[in-house]
Design a protein that fits this description.
two-stranded antiparallel ribbon, mainly alpha, about 525 residues, elongated, disordered N terminus
């Protein structure tokens, strides 16, 4: 695959990830008594893997794998790891070998004796200077620290150098999960994952990693352009356009009329019931053929949501959770939560329609109140997970704050609105909600301050300006009533008058206008 425009080898963008980014992490090699040889040059590739001076032999690899399984059963996990790595040297692309090695490594780490580190015997077999040696050592380093995002990305980079497509996707999914689980999610690592996944032909998965990076820094225009190029690349790959002239390339797709029809139908915005059924059947077959393949799961779940039957939503929810378990990318957990959002809101809406038809039904009224609160509680729990997954995303914090406000958790809401106000597009509304939250706990001065700050902003939409003035009026009224403050009451009265002149039917402005006039008159009498 060619490098992406403006990038170095394998699509690397040095703006995000320069060649020295892993330098500090290379000290981990000392854990195994080995030192990285920077003089190594890429070896020749063949059969999808780099031979590094060794004959590529799945048969020889199979013998090591068989021995590794037997040793694993005896509980000698360290030796089993060595055998898996010895087998992978002969067949680096073997997925059974990869999975077996990491299973042995996980078992080894569960043993307290693993704190001493692996023995020199294990490392000695990886002391060569070829790309395969570096690849196997990278896997070992990562396996010993599976939660380390930097080591995971390093392992992915080594997979990409060997052009190990299937292994690269497997490692990439887990590397993304490791990076996203870090307390501080690093954009450069996510971009590196996207670049490496793209380099092994996994553009769909690369998009997911790049989108996660964009959430860390939504202002990065170059990253947005990168995502668009990945989307184009993914479309080309799915259509076979990037294989024109090859056996099984674009011409093969044209000959495959059924597959081409599925591609065309899937792109349509409006689909007939027959089309949806056909697409669902094909997507389900693909999931059965490729169990655990995240893009296939995503496609099937998306079509189920599109059809939207209750049983479809439940199946889609389970599929998204499966994708989350496989990849650890929070995007899938979020999509599962969206389904629950819709279901809860739909239940409340149905009850509201029933109550509208029977306005005096107290039982329906109580059911609607309960369903509405449950919907908000569900949304709060989902947004709480999102905030934990994307701690720098202020829009999600704003949304969580709104749910806390609805649930009367004003202290928690205040903390979130105070952070959310630093996002320019949400600033005015975050300050409005912040002011209202202060009012709810009786902090009138703070409420007035937040609302005044919002009104001082430039380019506020007229309807937002109207809302802010209304809530400032409420805050000043509360201050006038509770503190017997004539000046605050008079300002509130002026605001009420200006709102009434602009829109006399706005909320309860008529009643507020009368109440404030009486308050001002009463305070003036008291003052005199």
């Amino acid at each position: 695959m060619e490098a992406l425009p403006g990038r170095g080898p394998l699509g690397q963008r040095r703006r995000y990830f320069n060649s020295g980014s892993f330098a500090d992490e290379d000290i981990t090699l000392a854990l195994f008594g080995s030192k990285k040889d920077e003089s190594v040059k890429p070896a020749e590739t063949g059969n999808g893997a780099v031979a590094s001076g060794l004959e590529f032999s799945p048969e020889k690899a199979s013998k090591f794998f068989t021995h590794a399984r037997a040793v694993h059963e005896t509980g000698n996990y360290e030796y089993a790891m060595k055998l898996w790595l010895d087998g992978l040297r002969w067949d680096p692309a073997n997925m059974a070998g990869i999975e077996g090695f990491f299973k042995a490594a996980a078992s080894y780490l569960s043993d307290p004796a693993s704190k001493k580190g692996v023995s020199k015997d294990v490392v000695r077999g990886l002391a060569g200077k070829g790309e395969v040696d570096r690849y196997l050592l990278g896997l070992l380093e990562w396996a010993m620290r599976p939660s380390d995002g930097v080591l995971a990305v390093r392992a992915l980079e080594l997979c990409a150098k060997l052009r190990l497509s299937e292994v690269g996707v497997w490692v990439g999914d887990r590397a993304m999960g490791a990076v996203l689980r870090e307390k501080k999610v690093r954009k450069d690592l996510l971009v590196k994952i996207a670049e490496m996944l793209a380099s092994v032909g996994a553009a769909d998965r690369a998009i997911v990693a790049a989108e996660q990076a964009q959430k860390v820094d939504p202002t990065d225009g170059e990253l947005a352009a990168f995502i668009r190029s990945l989307a184009a690349q993914a479309t080309m790959s799915r259509g076979g356009y990037d294989q024109t002239g090859q056996a099984g390339g674009f011409r093969a797709n044209i000959r495959d009329a059924q597959k081409q029809r599925h591609l065309d139908e899937a792109e349509r915005i409006v689909k007939t019931d027959e089309t949806i059924e056909r697409l669902l059947s094909a997507a389900e077959d693909e999931c059965i053929k490729r169990p655990g393949d995240v893009p296939s799961i995503e496609k099937y779940a998306k079509l189920l949501v599109e059809r939207g039957r209750p049983e479809d939503e439940e199946k889609a929810h389970a599929l998204y959770l499966q994708a989350f378990d496989l990849s650890k990318a929070f995007r899938w957990r979020e999509l599962a939560g969206v389904i629950r959002f819709r279901q809860a809101r739909r239940k409340a809406l149905d009850l509201k329609k029933m109550l509208d038809q029977s306005p005096g039904n107290e039982m329906l009224k109580r059911m609607l109140e309960q369903a509405s609160r449950e919907a908000v509680e569900l949304e709060a729990s989902e947004f709480r997970l999102q905030v934990e997954a994307y701690p720098t995303d202020l829009t999600r914090k704003f949304e969580l704050g709104k749910r806390y406000f609805q649930l009367e958790k004003y202290q928690e809401a205040i903390e979130l609105f105070q952070e959310a106000q630093h996002e320019p597009r949400n600033r005015a509304m975050a300050l409005s909600m912040l002011g209202q939250s202060f009012l709810k706990i009786g902090w009138n001065d703070e409420g007035v301050g937040a609302l005044r700050t919002a009104l001082d902003m430039k380019d506020i939409l007229p309807e937002v300006n109207l809302e802010l003035r209304y809530w400032l009026m409420i805050a000043l009224q509360a201050k006038g009533e509770q503190e017997r403050d004539l000046e605050a009451a008079m300002e509130a009265d002026k605001l009420a008058s200006s709102i009434a002149l602009q829109q006399i039917g706005y909320l309860d402005i008529r009643l507020r206008r009368d109440t404030l006039k009486k308050l001002v008159a009463d305070l003036r009498t008291t003052k005199s």
